[in-house]
Amino acid sequence: MIYVPVMSLDVYHNFGLEYYLMTEHHFNEPVFMLWSTTPTVMLGKYQDAAAELNVEAVKRNHVKVARRYSGGGTIYTDQGGCQFTLIYPDDRTEIDFSSGLELIQKALNQIGIKATTDSRNDLVVGGRKVSGSAQYVTPGYKLHHGSLLFESNLDLMNQLLNVDPVKLAAKRIASVHQRTVNLNEQEPSWTAADFRENLRQAVYDLTSFQEYHLIADEQARVVEIGQQRFADPKFIYGRQGQGAFQVKRYFQGGGLVKIAYSIYHDQLADVHLTGDFFSNLDAVKFEHALDGTDYDRQRVSNVIRDQLAEDPILGVDADQLVNMLFDHV
Amino acid sequence: MLKEIHMPKLSPKSDQYFFGEWHKQPGDAVKEGDVLFEVETDKVISQVESQEDGVLKEQNVNTGDTTNVGDLVATIEVA
Fold first, then answer.
1. Which residues face B19 on adjacent strands?
2. Where are the domains of chain A?
3. How far is CA A8 from the centre of its chain?
4. Per-residue pLDDT of chain A (329 residues; tens, 9 = 90+)
5. CATH placement of domain A2-237
6. Minimal Cα distance from A144: which residue of B?
């Protein structure tokens, strides 16, 4: 087994490193890495950002949003946690989490953490999830990566991860939420860095891995892949390059108005109006009128004016709603 | 000659997969070993390669479709 030390906390760089090792370097034996990130949410390959994330909380807390090449649900990672990556040369396309999970489970057991596996290929301690895993398979190689929570900010995690079935775009993969726990409950005297180093040592004891350090050209290529493939907003938020937005504004004398929307093919989509304002407005009719409208201030303004002409909102006018859809981007 | 491409079995646990994205479009030349499409199942993204040389004729499933093992996925015109 090869061990590649990872210094970067940048999720795009580290996803680029995984991809580089899998598709360009082509080691003939398994590769193992341990890494961490700055506060980051990672979506699964086919997930809907609008439904999975509280975009406002993501922006407020300066959290990075990334999309994995692997499947599964959305996770939160930070420097209090530890990511592991295993890359195997493998001609079988059939799915198998067992060898990777067995290694991590054995290493955790060796350092005194009694982790077991569950039916979703997660590692659990006392029935609570401490690690989730996902994979992607390219011809000849299989990548298994996972997340270990040690002293991650679970309060922030809960604020960021949403799962709103109302907003879930049709034909997307939805996250399955499970009860999670930090591993420092088991080893409170360790820091996250101690945990990572102890885990690295335990994997070394089990595999006698060789260390490999990337040369300068390889490092440059990793940065390039990270920027081109993983930091691209079109990849992260959707093929059209626009995001999923949630705007909330309080109007004196009107109340709180919340509008969530996405933009697909330069048109409004998935518009969702809620709030505590006073109106006889039929929110569903309002939303349907806007869905499919070109994302153009004048066109959107015309639709909103027509809707409010029938059923006004007390203390909130059409221009204010139009501003919510255009002025925050 | 037209050759039918059917969904292979990719997971020991499941015969029903989420269809991901096409890597080849109708009219594209395809070589044996080229990635045709990807699917997601059990938190795994798998890329499925062509077993044929030819030209992709028709795509029979779209992103987000649920497909079963054995379903017709595409046809390839082989020489």
1. B39
2. 2-237, 244-326
3. 18
4. 999 999 999 999 999 999 999 999 999 999 999 999 999 999 999 998 878 888 888 988 999 999 999 999 999 999 999 999 999 998 665 667 888 999 999 999 999 999 998 877 889 998 899 999 999 988 889 999 999 999 999 999 999 997 776 666 667 888 887 888 999 988 899 999 999 999 999 999 999 999 999 999 999 999 999 999 999 887 888 643 344 677 888 888 888 888 888 877 678 888 888 888 888 888 889 999 999 999 889 999 999 999 999 888 988 999 999 999 987 65
5. 3.30.930.10
6. B44
Residues 6+ apart with CB under 8 A from A134: A44, A68, A70, A71, A72, A144, A145, A146, B43, B44
| CATH number of the A244-326 domain | 3.30.390.50
Contact residues, chain B, for A137 at CB < 8 Å: 44-47
The answer as to whether B24 is a domain residue is: yes
Under DSSP, the state recorded for B9 is P
CB contact under 8 A, B40 and A71: yes
Distance from CA of B67 to the nearest CA of A (A): 12
Minimum CA–CA partner of A43 in chain B:
B43
Assess if residue B1 is contained within a domain: yes
Question: Contact A264/A326 with Cβ under 8 angstroms?
Answer: no
Sign (positive/negative) of CA torsion A172, A242, A262, A231? Answer: positive
Partner A contacted by B55 (CB < 8 A): no
B27 in contact with A, Cβ within 8 Å: no
SS3 call for A302? helix
Q: Which residues of A touch B40 (CB under 8 A)?
A: 44-46, 71, 173
Choose among A69, A73, A94: nearest Cβ to B45: A69
- Is B10 within the bounds of a domain? yes
- Answer yes or no: do B20 and A136 touch at CB < 8 A: no
Domain membership flag for residue B36: no
**Residue-range definition of the domain harbouring residue B75:** 1-31+54-79
**ipTM for the assembly:** 0.86
